[in-house]
Amino acid sequence: MITLDYADKRPLYEQTKEKLRELIITGILKPHDKIPSVRELASSLSINPNTIQKAYRELEQEGYIYSVAAKGNYVSPRENTDAVNSARTEELRENFKAILSEMKFLGMSMEDALRLAKEVFGENKQ
């Protein structure tokens, strides 16, 4: 499910958070799917449970997961994440603008950028 890169300079909790976020965004983990407990994931990755707890806490703050007392952690439904992740949306918007600016500098046309956006949004039926 998740593999960590020990050569990566980012902290392990950030890598864990990124991998789980990717699984959620790509639909591999669906709304209300139960995710591994802190202990289960820590054991399978051979890392400290506090590392997993920190990743889960941040994912919950960003609206990607929710916890149920004595039951575990689950993937949040999309409609519940809008209000929680407006700060994340704004951060991504700024990152996207920076990426688009660099792509423009490197010679990418607006048409190619739009084609790429349509591909991501599933609107290119190639």
What are its keywords?
single chain; about 130 residues; mainly alpha
Could you walk me through the main structural features you see in this protein, from its secondary elements to its overall organization?
With 126 residues, the protein is mostly helical. Helices cover 52% and strands 8% of the residues. The chain contains five helices and three strands, in the order αβααββαα. The protein has helices spanning 12-25, 38-45, 49-61, 86-105, 110-120, and strands spanning 34-35, 65-68, 72-75. It has a three-stranded antiparallel sheet. A hairpin with a 3-residue loop joins β2 (65-68) and β3 (72-75). It is globular.
Rg from C-alpha positions? Answer: 17 Å
- Measured by DSSP, the beta-strand proportion falls in 5-15%
Span between termini: 30 Å
Q: Pairing-aware structural class of the strands and helices?
A: mainly alpha
Oligomeric description of these chains: single chain
Number of strands: 3
| Low-pLDDT residue spans | none
Largest sheet: 3 strands, antiparallel
Task: Give the overall average pLDDT.
Answer: 90
Summarize this structure briefly.
The chain is mostly helical. 52% of the residues lie in helices and 8% in strands.
